[in-house]
Amino acid sequence: MFRFTQLLSAALAIAIATNVISALPSPASSAATIESRQALQECQPVHASFNCDEAVALPSERGLDFEAPALAKRASVCNGDASLCSRLYSNVTYIGAHNSYALGTLQSASSGKNQEQSVTQQLNDGIRLLQVQAHKSTNSTSASAIDLCHSSCQLENGGTLESYLTEVKSWVDSNPNDVITILIVNSDDQPASSFATAFESTGLSSKAFAPSPGAAALAKNAWPSLGSMIDAGKTVVTFIDNSADVSSVPYILSHFQNTWENPYNQISVPFNCTVDRINSGSSPTNMMYLVNHYLDSTFNLFGTNVFVPNTAQIATTNGYNSIMTDADNCASMHGSSYPTYLLTDFYDQGNGSVFQAAAAMNRVAYVAKPIGNATKSSSSSSSSSSGSSSGALSSKISLSNVAAVVASLALASSLL
Questions:
Q1: Is-contact 93 358, C-beta < 8 A?
Q2: Domain spans of the chain?
Q3: pTM for the full model?
Q4: Per the residue annotation, which of 150, 255, 293, 334 is the catalytic one?
Q5: Has 293 been annotated as catalytic?
Q6: If residue 158 lies in a helix (H) or strand (E), which one and from where to where?
Q7: How far is the C-alpha of 79 from the C-alpha of 77, rounded, in Å?
Q8: Pick the CATH number of 82-415 from 2.40.50.140, 3.20.20.190, 3.40.50.720, 1.10.10.10
Q9: Residue 334 falls in the annotated catalytic set
């Protein structure tokens, strides 16, 4: 028989043993420890802002206090390819849509049209640079009072900036793993605050990338990686060609302080890739650059040279060989670096060859897919609508197009 003291000692021993067993790591927490340790061993920082030590923390070796936290979210595919996540924004080539808002058929190119597809379709197809030309509107009800027009709002009015940015914002929300760029030609030298009004009212400012406070320009090797931008949810880069004011609108950056361009309105090949437009005092050595890869035709109208897209050569101009010849020439002239941006007219002509060339420059696999929307959204009779494509690539000037040009010149003359 046990005496009372022996019973008490036995009970105490059982209690101690029970506490020790309950304190041991459970199979689940042990598995979490092993899984976290493996994740830490496998972790590789694919972008500068990603910290493996913060992303994966081992639980206490005793397994008593907490479970392993989940891995921090990071992009696994960026702009369509995993290998681009670690690439600096400035070291990727993006295909751009010249006057992306100016929609119509090839036949209407001479009256201010440069694209056939809607902005949403452009982005769906792979366009990652949207170029627009902004003019002050005298009759707009939008808060910014900015319309997107090609040279003259009488010739080509693509609607309000707010309407355009609303469409872009919708696409950006649906495609969080893609970084896009907007390039604004500020034709009437409007203040950056006017553009900020449109960005803020549409919500696109919440997606806009801004460098460190007060930074108007970044050296080419100082841009963040695509992955870090995507992880931060800042996937829209915006440039303006004049009147940038980063002290008040830090996400609308000076185009020519960050990027130089080759000549535009070129009418013959091979394309010229000399430095043509750059901010005064800037050196092109450590800057991004934009290639204007669209061929124009010109004709004289009452003593004025008028430039229109050379649609007769558009399939050749947008062809893989033409683009790569141009890009290789530029790279040979400028530090073996391919252009950051390559601007095109009617990018959908060529059956995806513009994107095939971009894939080659980015050293990623090209995946062919149908380009453009064959049905298009509406008739081309409206200046802001898309029209059905025609196989006849003609650069002839119709009477109606000449009339539109004359009207534009007359308006311009009246303003002088």
A1: yes
A2: 26-74, 82-415
A3: 0.76
A4: 150
A5: no
A6: strand 152-160
A7: 7
A8: 3.20.20.190
A9: no
